[in-house]
Design a protein that fits this description.
107 residues; two-stranded parallel ribbon; 47% helix; extended
Length: 107
């Protein structure tokens, strides 16, 4: 997704994308950090849109206004003993949020 987004922003003439991230495991993973480093090196050499990451401090839910709502929903839906199948997770999210389950948008 970041590759697509930075390519699109570069096509619009943007030179940087500012990302404010919490400490979610996928934000701080070695794979994501390595991709960001390689991408920004490539942009510095060849031009394009670099990614500037501004991490939120750990244990700072007051900085993320969605966090208090997210944590209650996550606890109500998730099961600590097992990973949920995608379809089961979608149904649980819609049941918790009392919303209609729609078909994904075709690309």
């Amino acid at each position: 997704m970041l590759e697509w987004l930075t390519a699109r922003l570069a096509a619009e003439g943007k030179t940087a994308l500012l990302m404010v991230w919490d400490n979610a495991s996928w934000h701080v993973s070695q794979a994501v950090r390595a991709w960001l480093k390689a991408h920004n090196r490539r942009v510095k050499r060849d031009g394009g849109c670099r990614v500037v990451v501004c991490p939120l401090p750990s244990k700072s839910p007051w900085l993320n206004r969605l966090e208090p709502k997210w944590v209650h929903g996550k606890r109500a839906i998730a099961e600590p003993d097992r990973k949920l199948h995608v379809d089961e997770l979608k149904h649980r999210i819609c049941a918790y949020d009392d919303c209609e389950l729609l078909e994904p948008i075709a690309q």
